[in-house]
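Now for a concrete sample entry.
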Amino acid sequence: MAAARVLVAGLLLFAPVLLHAQEELQQEVAVSLEQQEAADEQTEDDAQWQQLHAYTRHQLNLNKVDELSLQALGLLTPLEVTAFMRYRSLYGPLLSIYELQAVPGWDLATVRRLLPFVKVSDGVEGAPLLVDYHRRGQHTVLLRHTHRLHTTDDYLGSPDKLMFRYRYSFPGYASSGVTAEKDAGEQFLKGAQRKGFDFYSAHLYIARWRRVQALALGDYVVNLGQGLIQWHSMALGKGAAVMQVKREGEVLRPYTSAGEYYFFRGAGTTLTHKRWSVTGFASMRKLDAGGDGQGITSLISSGYHRDSNEVSKIGRVRQMSYGGCIQYSIKGGRVGLNVIGHRLSAPLLPETTLYGKFAVTGSETLNASIDYSKGVRNLHFFGELARDRKGRWAMLQGLLASLSAGVDASLIYRQYDRAYQSMYPNAFAANTKPVNETGLYIGLLLRPRPGWELAAYTDIYRHPWLKFRVNAPSSGMDALVMATWRPSKVVETVVRYTWKEQMLNESGGAGLPYVGLVRTSNLRWHTELKTVSNVLLRTRIEMNQRERESAVGRGWLFYQELQTRIPGTPLRVSGRLTRFDVSGEGNGLYASENGMLYDYAMSRFSGIGWQWYLNMQYKLSKSVTCWFRVHRTREQAAAEPMLLQWQVIAHW
């Protein structure tokens, strides 16, 4: 039987040309960012990318890995994880990494995406001893400096952005470290920041020690259910990954990023006994807020303290957060009960706008939910039912299905009350929060033949109450169709079409406002070619049209990117030149940028102009790597200041 398995794997064998682990990581990040290109703001949550990079140095042994660790990678769907665990249970330990192609439902692209982070070993690997927790990990120090030339901003501090991070990481078992950051325009060692950096964070995290599944001290994040009542970590929305619509991750994770809002500060632990796991956590921290003597008008999440107005809002309110969850494992799934509450030192005042009538008010919130997941053969069911302290409900039900070889489908139905309230949700929704929405999402993934992949989804939704810039109940529809062709391991071509229909306020001829229809369509062609001379070429052409009753906007962009390693040197160079022409109010095109390690951006293009950037990476030694980056965007209306960045990372 073992010989037959090796023969099957050999017949499926591809000639492996493994990219440098960092290149693979950067590509994974770029794909993830473009799958959620609805937001203009750049995320500072790089925890997932830190974890993936750590696994390039401490690879998961597929012959020993458990289901939770495989899910935590964030690269596989629940169906793919279940298929692998069944395969290993049926046939025993893997004999070769190439045997992964024999796992039902896994294609060549899935295997290649996973390769930098996993290994196959038949050695005896027992549970690590306590002494291993501080010996087998890796120390990392990061120092990053960002500067914009010739800025005209009238801020209190310099235009320099500084970040320092030290972290010790033993992936899956232990983590500790400190992070410090100063944003551009903030003061340093004076004024409001006399202690140096504007933001400090520290954490200690231990996992999988006897019955302690997780212990988090200091700064940490909490992820519950499907995000209806609480989800701190980054989670993908609607996009090309039509089968990755389920929220998955550990309940407690260490917080290691530089964002200043989406985390807790205190302690949390998860204890396990047989099929049961119990989590409890508590947090006390100060939040920036705007308001008056009567209460708070808004909580500020940006973390910017650049002028006297922003400085005046520093830490104006204290927030105590507490909660926990109980989970029970069943065959092929689990059931969980989740509770979380928050108490503010000053009340949130009611919104003065009609669309904000049901926003969170008062000084206390309390939410509870029940969530579940269950695999039955080629089906995976999941969902969550949540309730707030005022009795409003939110519900999400999902299904992932492997209909046949090469045909997968996903379905999500959600119904969120117009007045449902929660502080830190991040659930699947057309809105930014799971509130005021009913919708049905259907996704389909086809692999008709080797090298071809077709993905499509449609999402139909309605909002029973008013929204920002929508002064009436409204509805909408999103759709995507994407074809990917990989004729070989060095060529990939993608053609993608998206269409979106939503409602927005318009002004009538007599000045009377009404709600009109907005239709946006987008067509993208993207190709990548890796030549034999270790040169990677990326080319993209994209066009869109945004139709409103009052105006029509159109846009296009073209970019050419090149990445290469200078022969005979430890120097890597990459650059991109983009030309864009985008017209129309509210119209924009998006493209992710390949920057320095752990520093990723999403550019939004509007107007007419050029963008270019140049990245250089130099490996000083086996453990020290340096980056340098120059970035500039020039539009006819206005040119952004040139951006200069450098970064040093040391590992040992």
